[in-house]
Amino acid sequence: xxxxxxxxxxxxxxxxxxxxxxxxxxxxxxxxxxxxxxxxxxxxxxxxxxxxxxxxxxxxxxxxxxxxxxxxxxxxxxxxxxxxxxxxxxxxxxxxxxxxxxxxxxxxxxxxxxxxxxxxxxxxxxxxxxxxxxxxxxxxxxxxxxxxxxxxxxxxxxxxxxxxxxxxxxxxxxxxxxxxxxxxxxxxxxxxxxxxxxxxxxxxxxxxxxxxxxxxxxxxxxxxxxxxxxxxxxxxxxxxxxxxxxxxxxxxxxx
Length: 255
What we know:
By secondary structure, this protein is mostly helical. The chain folds into 3 domains: about 1-30; about 35-160, no CATH class; about 210-255, no CATH class. It contains 11 helices and no strands. α2 (about 40-65) packs antiparallel against α4, α4 (about 90-105) crosses α5 and α10 (about 225-235) packs antiparallel against α11 (about 240-255). The protein starts with 7 loop residues before the first helix and ends with a helix. Mean pLDDT is about 85; it is low at about 1-5.
């Protein structure tokens, strides 16, 4: 059948496919030229070192448990950072990710993974900075996003398989699908889900719940009902989670 007589819908799809293939070819050509350019390579090293320096020290401060800034709590960014600081090991976890991404950027074999980990973190910082107009990173964070995007483009040869316009070569022979049910895999997966739910359910002696009334329902079965009620009052009156939990643990240990 003549392709030009196949109707407007098929013509439209064919034009889209041609446009995608053309774009993919042009990107491949530009990319190959850039990878062979000495100045592009120097610029890549500069971006990796600059981004690594930006995250290494910021992450280290979080890992050692210090506050990231001296902003007053009434400041929108200060209020947010105080809340993050009070989350405990989540605050440390962010620092570990930042330091890990920074170190990975400096190692050629892990630089791509470092850029991938780095991007969602710095993008979140940039959006946060502009949402509260935080002058401390109002200009630097968007520049770091652009720098990170450049590094992701530099590793296009490794990431292109995830892009919608990349044309993958079709296999010469179409392999037959198997109808064999993977009993072992799904059995292990089901057991892992059940084990995870059981561990999480029994990992906490006391939980804050979403409301003070819901929190109080667990106090009847608590080893120290009064300490449990004090914990609920502390949490739902604005107290930091770890401080309220520490007071509860001290009260229960004294029994």
